[in-house]
Amino acid sequence: RRLRDRGVAPKTTAMQAIGYKELAAALEGKCSREQAVSQIKQASRNYAKRQLTWFRRNEAIHWLDVDECKDLPAEAMRLLSKQDN
Long-range pairs for 60-65 at CB < 8 Å and ≥24 separation? Predict the structure, then answer.
């Protein structure tokens, strides 16, 4: 509300971030607060899914399973030193 009151335009890049555009729509009466919150949750899940897809396709990413790795810091250091070679 303060950003809007200070004249930040709804179309600016920052106002298009997850959470801002949905709440701006609620403040403008285009949807309810509950609908905005639901849209924020869905947009956040969608974004997380896109991130995981990107990470899974990146062969430079090494996944470490915290349940299977007894010494996580040592394994991370091993992978980092292997990368330097």
Answer: none
Give 83: exposed, middle or buried? Use CB within 10 Å, 0-12, 13-18, 19+: exposed
Could you tell me which residues come within 8 angstroms of residue 39 by beta carbon, excluding any fewer than 6 positions away? Answer: 22, 31
User: Is this model's pTM higher than 0.85 or not?
Assistant: no
- Nearest-angstrom CA–CA distance, 56 and 53: 5
Q: Taking a C-beta distance cutoff of 8 angstroms, is the pair 23, 36 a contact? A: yes
Q: Give residue 64's pLDDT band: very low, low, confident or very high (50, 70, 90).
A: confident
